[in-house]
Each structure stands twice: as structure tokens, then as C-alpha cells.
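Weekly puzzle thread! Below is a chain. First person to post its structure in C-alpha cell form gets bragging rights.
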Amino acid sequence: MNLNWSGEEYEMLLASPREHQLIRDAIVEAGYVVGGLPEADWVARLGRTKAEVEDFLKGWGEFLPSRNLSVADLELIRSCFAETLEFFSDAEYQMRMNWTKRESSVALAGLLDDRRKITIDRQWG
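Winning reply:
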């Protein structure tokens, strides 16, 4: 799983359906975490309303090896990872996500490292 910059948005490259499922499950489970909270909490914690998160999730139904993501889309994914990693115990996380927290953290760290490199390159070329 890695990122490239296409000039206006990110291109996320997924190596496998398993990586796709990890992202999809992070979005689903983050919705579970904040599900009963007021709409303002959805926006504060995930950057989008409940309906917007549900709409975004609809686009993750099938595995695609490459996806274009806006900056806001990537932030939603990052926020969903953060919510699930923080909220669930190690055992519960592995049961829900089919990844250990460590494996998932490594995948997320790789994306964030790519984002950092892209940001530096965009700002200072």
C-alpha cells in the first residue's frame, strides 16, 4: 500500500484485496465507534457527517488496485485508522479487522510516510 501524487490528488496503490479490506473495515469500524454520537462528533472526529462517511464507504465495495483520493479522502482514512486503533483492544481489533494492530500500524505508517514525502516535495520540490 503506497501513495503517489498526481498533481491534484493522491493515487493510492493497493497490493492486495486484503489491503483493500483493511481500509474498508477501518471505515466501517470507525463508524461503529462514533455511531451513537451526535453529528458534530462525526465531523470533529472523522471530518465528515455520517451520511458522507456512508457515501464514501459505498465506493469501497470492490477491490481496485489503484484509487484516486482527495486530500480530504486520505484524511478520512487516517482518522478512521486512528479511531479503530485507539478504541479497540488488541484482541478485539484483530477479530474485527483480521489484522493485528501492529500490522495495521505498519501499513498506516507507510501511507503517512508517503504523504510526508509528497508534502515535502510539493512544498520545496
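Puzzle host: Confirmed. Bonus trivia for everyone else. The CA atoms of residues 2 and 53 lie 22 Å apart.
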